[in-house]
Design brief:
single chain; 400 residues; mainly alpha; Growth Hormone, Chain: A; 15 helices; globular; membrane; MFS; Sugar_transport-like
Length: 400
């Protein structure tokens, strides 16, 4: 671990890693589990829609507690609620498909509570010089977990009869969540902020405000993320009918992502963000191309490897630049919770829009070719994100 990251940064990385591990073990196969019960793209889409809606609203509502009270309680409560979600899935079994909306809301609330607290603490333990490095390590951890978690889950599910494997991995996720809660008690209690301004996220659109570029750029980023978060894994399973292949897909793509995040986090300096994000956006759009000819395990693997290789070029600049805006001056630092809420609400709008477009268009034309053309259209939105945010790269902010 680089000496540029202090002890609290490393501990926060560890807690994040455990939360992501629990999600990788079970979340990777959650939509596959639902698909095996009911083969309905719209149902999976509404499940994702409910999660995204709840996550964004939780950011906004819980922002008051996180700013004025204890951030660590929100972080731990997010882990607890996520654990309760998997308990309910274990209890409901095949009837989970009958409770898509309430379960989706519960999952979104747990994610929102955790990621709001995590993002605020992440901002507080990093600065403009270490933010890209921290994001790089987040990517590396996510990649390592992506290598081991889904592959292990896929092997367990394939080795056991019926849905026993799913029950095992859901239970293991509960244990990992518990370890994450215990580890979080070593994170220092953070300083409380001033009064929470409910409408502040909506006031950041002054004439010369940089958020006029950052907000629509974040929304454009969310359009792709909302649909691809559930669709890619599902396509791999539909093409192969084997959970083992899903785990193998994740292993290979995460291995590539591990190297890519390490390299980009290490060498992509602030002055290269403009070109780096553009190149990344073009390439992650271009790698969707092979799917237009055929959707099989080989073309999906080509798409997955290409995305993993080039995604960090696009992702790290857009994340770091928005967080640099939060550290622009003393006033924005004081409003960091509200501004993080603004960022998440922006991404939520994009996710909801992308998912809703997918559901409406696929319902109108329920064919696999429709799915692929939607992937190409929605997958090109990183180019729009770059167009909207590029001015921030030409005039980078100085951190307070």
């Amino acid at each position: 671990m680089s000496s540029s990251l202090n002890g609290q940064s490393r501990l926060l990385l560890a807690v994040n890693g455990l939360f992501v591990l629990a999600g990788a073990l079970s979340g990777t196969f959650l939509n596959v589990y639902l698909w095996k019960v009911k083969q309905d793209f719209a149902m999976i889409g509404w499940f994702t829609f409910s999660q995204q809606l709840a996550l964004g609203l939780t950011f906004w509502i819980a922002g008051k507690w996180v700013k004025e009270q204890d951030k660590m309680i929100s972080l731990r409560l997010g882990i607890v609620v996520s654990g309760i979600f998997y308990l309910l899935v274990l209890w409901a079994g095949a009837h989970t498909v009958d409770y898509i909306w309430p379960l989706g809301f519960l999952f979104g609330i747990g994610s929102g509570l955790f990621w709001l607290a995590f993002n605020v603490v992440y901002f507080e333990v990093t600065d403009v010089d270490t933010r890209d490095l921290f994001n790089g390590w987040i990517g590396i951890l996510g990649s390592v977990i992506g290598i081991l978690g889904p592959w292990t889950s896929g092997w367990i599910i394939s080795a056991m009869k019926g849905n026993l494997g799913y029950r095992v991995i859901f239970t293991v996720s509960l244990i990992v969540y518990g370890i994450g809660i215990l580890l979080s008690f070593w994170l220092k209690k953070r300083k409380r902020g001033g009064p929470y301004r409910w409408m502040e996220p909506f006031r950041q659109f002054g004439k010369n405000s940089p958020w006029r570029q950052a907000v629509p750029a974040s929304a454009a980023h969310g359009v792709r993320e909302g649909v691809f978060s559930f669709l890619v894994t599902l396509l791999v399973f539909i093409s192969t009918s084997a959970e083992r292949k899903v785990g193998q897909f994740s292993l290979v793509t995460s291995l590539v992502s591990l190297v890519s995040f390490w390299a980009v986090g290490k060498w992509l300096h602030i002055r290269f963000r403009y070109a780096g994000m553009l190149v990344g956006a073009v390439l992650i759009t271009g790698v969707i191309g092979p799917l237009l000819w055929d959707v099989n395990y080989v073309t999906l693997m080509l798409f997955g490897i290409g995305t993993s290789l080039f995604m960090p070029l696009y992702l790290l600049p857009v994340i770091s630049s928005v967080f640099d805006l939060i550290g622009k001056n003393e006033d924005t630092v004081e409003q960091r919770v509200e501004l993080i809420v603004l960022r998440e609400l922006s991404i939520m709008v994009g996710r909801l829009l992308g998912t809703l477009l997918f559901i409406i268009i696929f319902t109108w034309s329920p064919h696999m070719k429709t799915v692929i053309w939607l992937m190409l259209g929605l997958g090109a939105t990183p180019l729009l994100s770059w167009v909207l945010i590029r001015k921030l790269f030409k005039h980078p902010v100085d951190a307070a």
